[in-house]
Amino acid sequence: MATEELxxxxxxxxxxxxxxxxxxxxxxLMHDFSCWNPDDMHYELLRxxxxxxxxxxxxxxxxxxxQRGWKKAEWRQCVK
Length: 80
Prior knowledge:
By secondary structure, this protein is mostly helical. The chain contains three helices and no strands. The longest helix has 23 residues, at about 55-80.
């Protein structure tokens, strides 16, 4: 439900039901966000970017480095 309440923080946040599926643009996007296989995605840019981070050695290394960073940050939160 849209409240149109402003927070004056410069951000624009949209909440979308991730289970929504149909042939509309948002339905296709929600489908793509849930895909594990890039070949099953509708949108070329998202498909190509996902494929890069999952299949290209350089992209995989970038994602692995990001995950290591997230893991370290999570560990720091646990030991506080």
